[in-house]
Amino acid sequence: MNPFLTVLLFLIPIFLLLLTRRRTSQKLPPGSLGLPIIGQSLSLLWAMRVNTAEKWLEKRVRKYGPISKLSLFGNTAVFIYGQAANKLVFTCDGRTLANKQPTSITAILGERNLLELHGEDHKRVRDALVSFLKPECLKEYVGKMDGEVRRHLEMHWEGKQKVTVLPLMKTLTFNIICTLLFGIEFGARRDKLVNCFQRMIQGMWSIPINFPFTRYNQSLRASAQVRKILKELICQKRIELEQKGTSSHRDLITCLLSIRGKDDEAAISEDEIVHNVMLVMVAGHDTSSVLITFMVRLLANDPTILAGVVQEQEDVAKSKSLGELLTWEDLTKMKYTWKVAMETLRLVPPVFGGFRKALKDVEYGGYIIPQGWQIFWVTSMTHMDANIFQEPTKFDPARFENQPTIPPYCFVPFGGGARICPGNEFARIETLVTIHYLVTRFTWKLCCNDDTFSRDPMPVPNQGLPIQIMPKKLMSH
User: Fold this and answer.
1) 32-471 is classed in which CATH architecture?
2) What predicted TM-score, i.e. pTM, was given to this entire model?
């Protein structure tokens, strides 16, 4: 064979391969991946810490457009934002995009948690959680939550002149979770769990370098202790369920243990119970405590909106006899208060953003997101878009008077579509009951007029929001 032809036949496949690679690389979103493993992680975490994360992302958008590649927490990722981006994240089928959190979150919470599952596994575990968290079931728990809030205020607020709101709200929401969701009574086990839990959540968004001095390592060790406590608790609940005939809806763990599949086998494995209970702990503890804290701050800054909330809550209080617990029907009358809560969620969403993983090449915005890459989306990017919400920096609950006017997939504090948070109704009840007792029992003034906050990764107001409190004359309860 002609030597020239031999070389040509040899070079053609190489040329075609290079051409294909070039085309693929041309279709990759713009942006830099930065240093190996670290990428842009430290830069983003610092921006979150000093509350400039939105500006950090806006700078990326100005430089690269609405889609760009980067590297976060050890993974190659693509940042996307806007209504279309949210719709892709929340509605894409499980064969195209999968739930996939950063390595740090998966390692700390466990790989069988709802944020990691997709397809039939996701549906099975989600359905199990929803069976406990759906409104029909939660109606039965309003009285218990009322009792927890009253006990908390008596212990930590009454007789005080000054309190720091965020740590107290975290104490309250953790106690509500322990009582309602896990059936753990006050005592040594609950104290140990709260201590381990607080150390565990500190490394949720961290670079997954497992050295003894890192946040990641400390969180992993705390996570192991939390799992041990939960496994002991599951064992105890299983015995109570089998021997004493406990009600299957006594608490979340008992509910998950009682769900049966084919051949009367457990529908949810022990690992799935542990990992999803840990997820619910994180979601229920941080999101509600942050929402209530920022509502307290926003109400202190806006007397007109505060007056509207107080009027609504005092009307509910007047309809109750002395010592009577709040009911589901009372909560349905708190429409204005919930609009205030939604506007707070728009301005300060507790969840900064999240991740998905491309299971195959995804074409989006004229680019290819390669199989295996992560997709990073951020909640506040549509919340603060002036094309969607007029005067986005203004605190205006009236935006939610007519919710259908808000375009779909633009207001996403609880996610959207099939991926909407199963605990959103639980958070609503928790928030309304707490705000009811705060505004009917106390007035308050901010001790710190600095309106800044940092993210770690949840929003934390300056100094944890210290306030001066004055008791009100009790009306009826």
Assistant:
1) Orthogonal Bundle (1.10)
2) 0.84
